[in-house]
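[Q] Does anyone have a clean structure-token version of this?
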Amino acid sequence: MIEERQGSTYNGYAAIGVLLLLTLATPVAIGILPMMLKIPMALFGLLVFACWLGFFMVAPNQGRVLQLFGRYVGSERIEGLRWANPLYMKAKVSLRVRNFESGTLKVNDSNGNPIDIAAVIVWKVVDTAEALFEVDDYENYVQIQSEAALRNLATTHPYDSYGEEGQGFCLRGSPEEVAALLKTEVQNRLSKAGVEVIEARLSHLAYSPEIANAMLQRQQAAAIVAARQKIVEGAVGMVDLALNKLADQNVVDLNEERKAAMVSNLLVVLCGEHAASPVVNAGSLYT
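[A] Here you go.
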């Protein structure tokens, strides 16, 4: 792999002083030198004139990749006016942080449910040589590989766990874990292009329209079952506490049949969806 290295460049302001001095001195030298040295000095003057073409600017957070007849000779990141061999080709590469938002992709999660998913990738170039020479178009490469990593993430994890154990984390319920995994996968794909992934997060996640209603009903049913489970657990605890209190404090002595009737009544009251209507028993305990 071609890795970035420092190119042979010089301070542009110092180069201006040197070239200006040589430019002014060349005509003087041609005028005072003998005839046999005038032609070499004139050729030297043309070389000095060509050297004026070697100046270039480097903006903040920008790199210049230098090539000599197609051969990579180095990169320059020092901002300001610089000078290098006039024969060098100087390609610009932005080192600024950039955002890429993928389009909404329709994929199947690990359970086979079609979902719509999109992500935002924050990235920047950290190796100018790899970005230009290891891939054909590094910006297009970032786009395609990011979407490929997003598809792979969506197909290997469920949209929702629905309280089922053994599935690991899900896309909807574990945003931090999903973001970390997506960042790692995208970085692994983009490292050969000299790109660093700063952040990767889901920007859109939903069931596809054709199953959205059915999945909404499933989520509601799962929520109702979970709520009912909590209610039953609480009701059983309250019934057990009531029976123990009645027995410990000798409030009333109940046989097994009456305990079963009391448990049934308390569970109906505590687990019912509507408030119970009280009925006053005016007779004895056993009537």
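[Q] Thanks! Anything notable?
[A] The chain is about 45% helix and 20% strand.
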